[in-house]
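User
New here, help please:
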Amino acid sequence: MRIATWNVNSVNARLETVSRWFEEAQPDVACLQEIKCIDEKFPTEAFERLGYNVIVHGQKTYNGVAMLSKTPFEDVRKGLPGSDGHAEGEDHARYIEALISGPVPVRVGGLYLPNGNPIGTEKFDYKLRWMQRLNAHARDLLALEEPLVLCGDYNVIPEPEDADKPEGWLGDALFQPESRGAYRALKNLGLTDAYMQVDGAPAGYTFWDYQAGAWPRNHGIRIDHHLLSPQAADRLKGVTIEREVRGWEKPSDHVPVVIELTL
């Protein structure tokens, strides 16, 4: 089973590029972030024509997540359980989850973690509270002892080696000790960072800013991750960062990251 994550940065604005990748790559499951549309505006038919079942948790203009699968969904969830008391945040469409049917069912959660900038503001506090809620939910999911993949745009640079210019991110919410510590706390529950298990080499970037020539200069960062339960990590066969997609016409600033599980 090939499971992809991709922050598409507006699915309708980049539908031609996104469709091209799906036609070429043919992932079995894909989690999309920043679709930037309500459910009814998601181009469901375009993906159904490619053979995908589609579930959407959208939001007007901002955020929004979707999941596509070549096999049926079961046990669908939209949104993280619990509340952080932040009224604005409760309207954020940032999490979607389903059990993917197959020879060995796999539970997949797709997430778009808050950016958190600027630090020292409510936005950063919200990021950390959201990560606490994710941690609590991940703990509950791990208790099921089933293959589990939590993938998406985590908006966290785990280590200095995950940035071409780490010194340039010292004042950014993505690279704060609190953000990185919350990511480590997720892993410490028993989750495995798929890229680090299979490869782990520096410069496995998944995002290049549109500004200041970041892409041609390879000033990238690694912020799109797959975290796997032990039952999924034991089945991990490979990880591919589809970096060439960043050079396509009208690209997202993120590229697809695909893991392969042996079922």
User: Anything to note?
Assistant: The mean pLDDT is 96. The chain has one domain: 2-261. The two ends are 7 Å apart (CA to CA).
